[in-house]
Amino acid sequence: MTEVTDSNPTDFIRDIIDNDLRINKNNGRVATRFPPEPNGYIHIGHAKSVCLNFGIAAQYKGTCNLRLDDTDPAGESMEYVESIIRDIHWLGFDWQDRLYYASDYFEKLYQFAVELIKSCNAYVCSLSPDEIREYRGTFTEPGKDSPYRNRSVEENLDLFQRMRSGEFADGDHVLRAKIDMSSPNIVMRDPVIYRIKREPHYRTGTKWIIYPMYDFAHCLSDALEGITHSICTLEFENNRPLYDWIVERLITGNRPQQIEFARLNLSYTVLSKRRLIELVEKRYVKGWDDPRMPTVSGMRRRGYTPEAIRNFCAQIGVAKNDNLIDVALLEYCVREDLNEHAPRAMCVLRPLRVVIDNYPENQVEQIECSSHPQKPEMGTRKIPFSRVIYIERDDFMENPPKKYHRLGPGREVRLRNAYVIKFESMIKDDKTGEVMELHCSLDPATLNGPPVDGRKVPGVIHWVSAEHCIPAEVRLYDRLFNIENPGSEENFLKYLNPISLEILTKCYAEHNLKNVEPGRQFQFERLGYFCVDAKDSKEGKPVFNRVVSLRDSWAKITGGEKK
RNA sequence: UGGGGCGUCGUCAAGCGGUAAGACACAGGAUUUUGGUUCCUGCAUUCGGAGGUUCGAAUCCUCCCGCCCCAGCCA
Known about the structure:
By secondary structure, the protein is an alpha/beta fold. It has helices at 12-22, 44-59, 78-91, 106-118, 129-136, 153-165, 214-224, 240-250, 273-281, 296-302, 306-316, 327-341, 553-558, and strands at 31-34, 63-68, 99-101, 122-125, 174-177, 192-196, 210-212, 229-233, 257-261, 344-345, 347-348, 351-356, 365-370, 380-385, 388-392, 412-415, 420-428, 435-443, 460-461, 463-465, 470-477, 501-509, 521-524, 528-532, 543-549. The protein contains 13 helices and 25 strands.
């Protein structure tokens, strides 16, 4: 885990906290929590919330708890809990000993429910699910009171106890808060707060047959933990009156305050858990950590850094406007971080063989080059140069367009960190006409400086020595969807990008990349930032994931076709 | 349709009655052995619209328009 030292942003939530502190609310205490349900992996949208909650705690010298909101056994599992813990730690945040589970509060929550029954604020309702819906009314018509609304406290207590002990089938009864069936806010029309569900819970097993609903469990969990500011997303705004209603009746002293902000939407991807689960389960991606996924584990495997993600979250801000953040901002944030920290290397993705005719057959020269052009402190490495090298296929064009700076008939280019070479001839495949090999000559005086006669060589291309390079697999990723806002489409799968992954198996990398640490990032010069895949790399045969390409102003000029 | 929320540059987002920050994107230019980095420069006379209050309004008032959320025994 890295220590978070990012500077503090400002937003409307921090304004509220500043004001609370000014009036000494909660005795100047600030306590937040991040409350995921362990039914999926967390994604970049959760990261926004993680940065907000943990960031506020750090800024105000308060605390932020991690609480697993596991009140619905369906779909929840320890695998998800473990992934959430791993991902938040990786992002750079820590909750010390404050790891909590809503399921640890089940007994307390049950007692709270009993209390609510005793104060005539809750009742057992025996309507069927369909009937409950009918009785609820609509946006324009008020609901009707349940015929069970006025059961006696004794009967309610008895029934609720028997719900717990397993006397009834799922759906036979529920516990409801007794509020107002004619409330214009549908959430307040006697909401269900406990249901019978015969489903084993990943932590409590078969101990419980009834489970509290979110609205009941969440606010009380906050209160039990002494949370001061309960930050959640906008869709819970309608639930805030219920949050307050419950807390007012059951909690004395300091009560937590719910504050809502707009969830993150990112262009060209989806962030709803339902849709991400669908991508995983229907195998459109290779798992939750597929490098194309916007999950934290997917981004980690892709090669994103925690710093980049945190900085992104700081850049996008916190407000209440619906938003669709341009994925270009995320890419900017990784480039910014990796440009600073990733050592440079050379790798040829689509090799073209080049023979330097005037270079001696058995000569090998070790060229020392820096690992970072602006940071000498990052050191140097040696790269062998020899008679036969590989260059990138599209760094040669037989009929180059105007302004093309690379190799072509009659042209010269600089080999990065090495000599200037000049095109002499090419060998083509008789049948296909494809260029198979180039023959060039080098200018021996150009290793450490420009040509002595003062001629300009505008192009620089990367290369590897054929004899010394190592084979590598490189995976190029593109956006998962080909429309800006797939999340707004019901049939979002229709817009999956068919070429979101391109696997190149015949790449050649400089020999220094032979045994690299999984998870390490490099800049492959002129191409982009690449990360050693932590799962599929083999000893001496690394697999590289492209994190993000370099900005490419040449591609912009030529129409931006993908490399 | 009842309720709740939101409308400031292409995308985010400051602004809290004193005359529109910043970031990304975009467009130019300089430097460059990465068509990278870095560095300059440009980019809302106007804040969803219309009225009103005021010496002065994105900020206050009124009406209108648009978008999002809520009718799970999900969270």
